[in-house]
């Protein structure tokens, strides 16, 4: 628990728990006013939320409350109520022990080492990763360190988003400066941007969004292409590039591989999506069931751009071990865990392996 203003004497905290229904600003405002009228020195508000957009009225209350306010949004979508509380004037921030896992509460270790909330103030700019799921991501560790390293007054937070359009409609303040976009929102993000970079438009997916400071418009980019391909580009030219997954990351990989002279073959559980992507890069789409036995030549390159093998399903792999003998290089965009079952088995049969961590770091360079 971090305390921002130490009281000089004993004080009374009046607390209320709100659950059921969408917590509107008007409803919370009336409740806070009622609690203030009791003569409370500090008001404590605990609100059950189902969506991250329901945290916005809570942050608004922090800004306008006339007495010190402690506000907590309960649930995994409510994490930013704690991480952003110092920016909006929150009185206290809660954290949990590392051994515990409380939805909506950051760990004490992350508060001190990753987010360093003691340095967050009203002028801090907000960045974040929009994804679902998002708790597995290492992005906050990397980006918060980078922001501190360059002396920029910013914080990078995980954003568990269900409805992308509603999220941007709700958080339209200039305080929300930029976003990374992860699974499953990369393709939907294109329609949410006011302007899209030509490369991202041709790929049909956005993984980076910047709010332009001059007019507040959202500008979309795609750094997946460079992040993925530069990790493996030396081996691409003239090779068969077998791609698993036709989502946002898959599209970026396919375009990048084509640009560097590879022959792209796409496998996806939904065959229609595989065909559409293959047509866009003058490649070939094959039914997903054929992936295990596909072997027109040895020395191919395999790239997994699906979520297969990601925590918590670390026992899964898109291609069985025996089939991996046909590949010279195997790349896995999954980076939690760092070494997936796919990469482990590929290494065992003698293939060169490239972890998603490589892509992750190069993406981060592209974001900055």
UniProtKB/TrEMBL annotation:
- InterPro entries in UniProt: Aldolase_TIM (IPR013785), Aminoacid_DH-like_N_sf (IPR046346), DHquinase_I (IPR001381), NAD(P)-bd_dom_sf (IPR036291), Shikimate_DH-bd_N (IPR013708), Shikimate_DH_fam (IPR022893), Shikm_DH/Glu-tRNA_Rdtase (IPR006151)
- Give the domain of life: Eukaryota
Which residue numbers delimit the Quinate/shikimate 5-dehydrogenase/glutamyl-tRNA reductase domain? 235-304
Any idea which GO molecular function terms this record carries?
3-dehydroquinate dehydratase activity; shikimate 3-dehydrogenase (NADP+) activity
List this protein's GO terms for biological process: chorismate biosynthetic process; shikimate metabolic process
Task: Name a Pfam family for this protein.
Answer: DHquinase_I
Q: Which residues form the Shikimate dehydrogenase substrate binding N-terminal domain?
A: 129-209
Descriptive protein name: Shikimate dehydrogenase (NADP(+))
The species is Ficus carica (Common fig)
Lineage summary: Eukaryota, Viridiplantae, Streptophyta, Embryophyta, Tracheophyta
